[in-house]
Prior knowledge:
Layout: H1 2-55, H2 62-75, H3 90-111, H4 114-125, H5 127-134, H6 143-159, H7 164-176, H8 180-193, H9 198-211, H10 214-230, H11 235-247, H12 251-265, H13 271-291, E1 295-302, E2 313-320, E3 329-334, E4 340-345, E5 361-369, E6 381-384, E7 388-389, E8 393-398, E9 400-401
Parallel strand pairs: 1-8
Antiparallel strand pairs: 1-4, 2-3, 2-5, 5-6, 5-7, 6-9
Helix pairs in contact: 1-2, 1-3, 4-6, 5-6, 6-7, 7-8, 7-9, 8-9, 9-10, 10-11, 11-12, 12-13
Amino acid sequence: MTMFWVISALLVLVAMVIFVVPMYKGKEQDEVASRDELNKAFFKDRMDELKEESSEGLVENKDELVVELQQSLLDDVPAGTEQKKTPVSTAMLIPGLIVLVGVSFGMYMKVGSLDKVQAWNDTVARLPELSQRLMDESNPLSDQEMDDLTLALRTRLHSEPNDATGWLLLGRIGMANRDAETAQDAMARAYRLDPSNPEVMLSYGQTLMMIGDPAQSERARLLLRSVLRVDHTNIRALSLLAFDAFEAGNFQQAINYWNMMKQVIGADDPRADMLDRSIARAQSQLERSNNTATSVSVTVELDPNVELPEQGLVIISVHSADGAPMPVAARRVPLSSFPISLTLDDNDSMIPERPMTSLQDMIIKARIDTDGNVTTRKGDWYGQSDIIPLGGSTNVVINTKY
């Protein structure tokens, strides 16, 4: 800020010189020019008079008078060193300089956003204080202070672009603010400057995981595994890999990482209970994934009293347990010899947004169709099962006329 004021003062001084010098020179030159013009005008008028008098015969020695007139003109031109300089009025000069300085700084104060520049410099000066506060969980930064810290950091990094620690801190702020673009760019700069720093590798890996892109997630795993190769007890790397595995549905891998964490922290650590709960949850998800049913088996039989049409289809449909008429899944089967056995799954769903496996319990219906409509119409023969669970099997007897 001091340098700014020094430069501003120099510029104003130059403007003052430009203002003062022409006033002095202009005054002097104007006086000389005025006297010369007056002498020339007098000489010209006198020459005209001599010509007129000579033509009228009033003057006999015209040449001598012309020489005298020329000599008089030369005698009236003073030497340059003897020219009198008229001083510039102080009453005009000082107010002019005051107006010049006042207008210059006044315009800057009005349109130069001096208050914002001052606030910016104050924010940059608070960088050490705000950085310390960022690490103090008991006294968290407000949203405005977080913005100030970001501004101060960006300012310093503009002048010190090779500061890996500064880029790391800026990336962490971006992560805290859910600003994935800022976080990724800053962490990438920090990693390029210091690729062997475990803290940089961990933070960069966490940022890449936050993006959610599969390619970036795989790169994040490579970074975190590199940290573990150097330090297999790194809790943060183990935790990030465990969480990533759980979110990806790799429950056994997540369990393995959490068990490794338990070995590192010990049974007496307060975090052990949380890890046990995470392991139990992953174990439950693993068992469920191993035993998840995705289909239902159906056998359709025909009551002897039912008369089959010459042409038609058998429509086997899956309905929610509340008996809603609109099917969740259905399959058309050509009329043939009964019984008909088949398996229904998500491939038979009516709409992708509601797959058959979204139902925990269901009712199976079978109907002889002659018009291609999936809903039951008057005169159709049909049958339905009791409520069965997903993954179960049932027999449906077509024995009722709608």
